[in-house]
Known about the structure:
single chain; alpha+beta; four-stranded antiparallel sheet; 46% helix; 14% strand
Amino acid sequence: MSKFIEHQNWRYATKKFDATKKISNEDLNTIKEAIRLSSSSYGLQPYKVIIVENPELRAKIQPAAWGQSQIVEASHLIIFANETEVKDENIDNFVNNISVTRNIPLEALSGYSAFMKSKLVTLSDEDKAIWTAKQTYLALGNLLNVAAELKIDVTPMEGFVPEQVNEILGLEKLGLNTSLIATLGYRHEADDTQHYKKVRKSEEELFITL
C-alpha cells in the first residue's frame, strides 16, 4: 500500500492513447480478476463486463460515444452493462453459488434468499435498472485502482448514448444496458493532459468529522 497514493496521483483520465501499445494477456487477466472480485450489494454482481476487441465494432461505437478517439485508439475497450431486471431466478442462482462455494445447505440460506427477493424483486422496473447500474460503478473503482497499480491508463466514460451502444452490441435482447465505458491502454506522449496538476477538493473542504 505504500505506493497506492503515488499511483493514484499518477493516474488521470487519458485523452490520447498510444495505439501501438497493447496490454499483455497477463495484465489483462489481472484486471479481469480484480473486476471479478469487486464488491457489490448482496454480492449479486447484476451486470456483465464486455471486452470489445473487434476493431469494426469499436469503430461503430465511436460515434455513439461522442466521437471520442479513445474508443478506437486504446488497447482495450470495456463496457459495463447492467442487467435491467432482477428476478427470482437471479437470486436463486446466486444462492446456489453460495451453497456450493461455502458448502452450506440450501435450506440454511432460505431466509437470506427470501430477504433479498423481498427487497429487490419487488422494486419497480425503473428502480431495478437504477440499482443495477449503480453496481457497475463499484466494479469500475476496482478497475481504476488495479490499472493504476499496473501503470495502465484508463479513461472512464459516461459520454455516450446508451441506446445506440445497446443496439450496436445487441444488448437489449440479453436484458442488458450500457452503464459505463472504460478504455484501457497507455498514454501517448503527445497527450498534454498527463502533465496537468490533479485538481481535487482540499481535505478540509471534502471531509466532515462528526
